[in-house]
């Protein structure tokens, strides 16, 4: 987050620059989690911006810019964290660039400590083949953990409709591993709601979505999905792995 970044909610100008204790954050979750469970996504984001101010960010994997669009309308200049693993499709990087060029957001590209070449040198070539959990830990989980250090709350585009594993994604939850409030404003949205929002608001979408990739991760671990199949079945296809670890 840059010092110049200012986040302004529609109705509240948030000025919280000091972090809250984990106890205070957990208390917010227990109170507001039930209160906002059925609230519109815009209201959930507005609450987060008003509550956490500059200590709130959203994350995006650049499958689409729905969450960034929602958040930037509530809080122009909102921080959007993108993890550049070094293994993204060119279309994903292009979507990131388009979001940065056309939307009122403060886009923050986070990279792992090691380049892919350095990782290959230390752990052996193509760690994603030999130990994908470690590869995700090094290229996703650890960088995100570090990048969230200056925030109290982060928002994700998690949706319960995406996969059975995400059924319990709460709208406002406590991320015990990160000791942060985790906000999922579109957790209750159906696929149809997402499509309608994209069409009505002219939201940027990664072109791979229209090319058989409803869920997009790193190119070595993402495959096309047949129409009607689980949208996330193309991620780590043929392995036991279903999540990268940033949501567990
Ligand atoms: S998704 Fe694949 S390439 Fe990307 S970090 Fe995880 S294991 Fe590595």
Automatic annotation (TrEMBL):
It is found in: Cytoplasm. Its cofactor is [4Fe-4S] cluster. Belongs to the PAPS reductase family. CysH subfamily. This is Adenosine 5'-phosphosulfate reductase. [4Fe-4S] cluster binds at residues 135-136, 218, 221. The active site is at 244 (nucleophile). Pathway: Sulfur metabolism; hydrogen sulfide biosynthesis; sulfite from sulfate. Residues 1-14 have a biased composition (Low complexity). InterPro entries: PAPS/APS_Rdtase, PAPS_reduct_dom, Rossmann-like_a/b/a_fold. One of its GO terms (biological process) is hydrogen sulfide biosynthetic process. GO terms for molecular function: 4 iron, 4 sulfur cluster binding; adenylyl-sulfate reductase (thioredoxin) activity; metal ion binding; phosphoadenylyl-sulfate reductase (thioredoxin) activity. It catalyses: [thioredoxin]-disulfide + sulfite + AMP + 2 H(+) = adenosine 5'-phosphosulfate + [thioredoxin]-dithiol. Its EC number is 1.8.4.10.
